Amino acid sequence: MVGTGGTTVLYQDSASDLRSQNQELRQQNAELRENLDDTRNDLESTQTRVDELEDQLETRSEDVDQVATNLNQTEEQLNATESQLAETRQSLRDSEDRVEELEGTVDDLQDERDTLQNEVDDLESTIDDLESENEDLEDERAELEDQVSDLQDDIDSLESRISTLEDDIEELENQNQELRDDIETLCSQPENQEKATCEGY
Hints:
It is a single chain. Helix content is 93%, strand content 0%. It is mainly alpha-helical. It has one domain. It is rod-shaped, with a radius of gyration of 77 Å.
């Protein structure tokens, strides 16, 4: 009986230990399930984050492609700008050479202008002298015109005198002709032919 009782106590202790272990295992199992749920939740969150990161990565890849495209365009624009800059520098050098040439031309034109201005001054002085001389000549011409007017009056008077004298001469010639005709008529008469006055008639 004693042996049986001891066995019973030992069995009860073992059962109690098993129940205790089983309880611990259940508790551990519950904790593991809870941890598993947490892990699954973390996994889902992580997967969601991974999906988001993949989307961001794809977006970033597109952004990188766009940036690369923009970079290529920028490089092309930079090359074009550098080419334009080189052309602009060449144009600037050409413009500077042209400016120097034009400045030389301006200096030459200024010298020519000064020379022409001196010639103009000389011509204006000559014109002043000629105008003064012209005024003197105008005065002299007016004086000569007065003299011509006086001489014209004298000429008119002389012409009138000449006309009168010509009339007198013509009248005298007519009278002389009449006298010669009378002498010729007289000398043609026989009684007068021997007279000395009739010689030549």
